[in-house]
Amino acid sequence: MAALLAEKAYQCGYAVYILCESASNAAQLDALLWDYREDACLPHQRYEPQTYNPHIPIQIGDLSMTECPPAHILINMSQEVPTFYQAFQSVIELVPDEVVRRQKAREKYRFYQRAKEQLVTQNVLGIPELPVFLG
């Protein structure tokens, strides 16, 4: 789902930062994006502040990062609300069907509510199990 959302954002000209739970999750996503579709190229890289290239629109990081690249959209695949979430115009939170991760997503939603962020809930691709929160 994150790959599809990143592709749509890229096609619209947005820079995207995908935040993963761990470095191994980020590596898996990095590999997946290389082989995402035969007919599509998603220019991306693992984000490292020292080697950041602003011409690569999709950056991938993990919770060990203390800073984030400049981007329009954050796709948060981690179970935490990153401290830097306000650096983005929009934050996309995927809500999985798995019980434990769904509970974490609800906690993040309440966090954004308490922070008085503008929340929009959308069903991505019409799949009720995968609403997205945009703030």
Question: Can you offer a commentary on this structure?
Answer:
This protein has 135 residues and is an alpha/beta fold. It has a single domain (2-134), classed as Rossmann fold (3-Layer(aba) Sandwich). The protein has helices spanning 2-11, 23-34, 99-114, and strands at 16-20, 44-46, 58-62, 73-76, 90-94, 120-123, 131-134. The chain has a 7-stranded mixed β-sheet with strand order 2-3-1-4-5-7-6, covered by helices on one side. The longest helix is centred in the last third of the chain and has 16 residues, at 99-114. It starts with a helix and ends with a strand. 26% of the residues are buried.
Number of domains: 1
Q: What composes the largest sheet?
A: 7 strands, mixed
- CATH architecture, please? 3-Layer(aba) Sandwich
Count of discrete alpha- or pi-helical segments spanning 4 or more residues: 3
- The CATH topology, please? Rossmann fold
Shape: globular
> Which stretches of 5+ consecutive residues score pLDDT under 50?
127-133
Task: Summarize the helix and strand pattern as letters.
Answer: HEHEEEEHEE
Task: Tell me roughly what share of residues is in helical segments.
Answer: 25-40%
Strand order of the largest sheet: 2-3-1-4-5-7-6
Number of E-type strands: 7
Kindly report how far apart the N and C termini lie. Answer: 18 Å
Q: What is the strand content?
A: 15-25%
* Structural class designation: alpha/beta
- On the 0-100 scale, what is the average pLDDT? 87
CATH C-level category? Alpha Beta
Radius of gyration: 14 Å
